[in-house]
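Q: What would this chain look like folded?
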Amino acid sequence: LNARYAWVDVWKFNHTVDGAKPFPGKTDFPVKALESAIELYGGGFQIEPDENPWVVLFYEGVREKYINAVASLGSHWEKSGDAGRAIGCYRKGIAVESLSEELYQRLMVLLEKQGRSGEALVLYKRLEKGLEEVFGIAPSPRTKNIYLSLSAGK
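A: My prediction, written as structure tokens:
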């Protein structure tokens, strides 16, 4: 496709995320660029098990960029002391990429810091169920350790 004649959302997404990366001398956090990129990402592609490997690799690369953008923006809000925005950011990311353990981990830890351990425990159970239903696997040891620490602190 010729970019002069066609607009492709994934091109815009990649360009926006790539433009949000820090470079020497840049001191402002790219909030607007990351928010724009997150809005552009419409969720995963429908991939069939027999898809060409390059399609799967491309999709995984875009998905990883999305998760990194959400994690980066959420972390920025946490460091800025705006837990509400961070929680909203992580929740939005999970709504789109419902099996992203990294986003679940970040949200669970933040909710616990906010005294909302019950919500964090519910999140873990939702992730655990989703991973089992879709992939037949359990959450990673890191996610399970977060859960165990939350359970111990009930």
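The two ends are 55 Å apart (CA to CA).
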